């Protein structure tokens, strides 16, 4: 079994993301994996993995403050090749649902919208183990990769209250928001 906890930083370079922020999407990631004993190649380990990432960025749209949040839940696999007992090369492929949200503030009002889409993540990296024993290992993982994100159509609107009449003109589509891009990540990992 393996558990990871760390940080991630994704560069947002799509036209739709650049319209609302110039910052990177940064946040926390958590993962769990279980080794699948296939015995294909010596020193090659195959793991089934699940991941969770919560990231955000702030920016401006026409001088109004914006906030982007993303919540990714991924499922996939990880391959680790042990070069030395304290050093390994890893490759990871995962995909799953992703929730993107956008909030815009201006003139005393806050408009928001959130939609579900999909994300596919691929990464390569290295594992460095400080402790490497058969029953317990502790170390760090450094990764670089790319997250392909489905563009979600957002129409931010003010949240309505019971005494407010909702009109279709009170919201406007800003188009699709694509949060895909290159990323790097650092995680502490434990195997047991």
Structure characterization notes:
The chain contains one helix and ten strands, in the order E-H-E-E-E-E-E-E-E-E-E. With 192 residues, the protein is mostly beta strands. The strands form two sheets. An eight-stranded antiparallel β-barrel has the order 1-2-3-4-5-6-7-10.
Provide mean pLDDT, rounded: 89
What overall form do the CA principal axes indicate? Answer: elongated
Rg of Cα set: 20 Å
Uncertain residue ranges = 162-170
- For the termini, the CA-CA separation is 5 Å
- Biggest sheet: strands, sense, closure? 8 strands, antiparallel, barrel
Sheet/helix structural class: mainly beta
Topology:
Elements: E1 2-10, H1 15-18, E2 25-36, E3 44-61, E4 64-84, E5 87-106, E6 109-132, E7 137-149, E8 152-154, E9 175-177, E10 181-191
Keywords:
192 residues, mainly beta, eight-stranded antiparallel barrel, 1 helix, single chain, 2% helix
Quick summary:
The chain is mainly β and 192 residues long. It has one helix and ten strands.
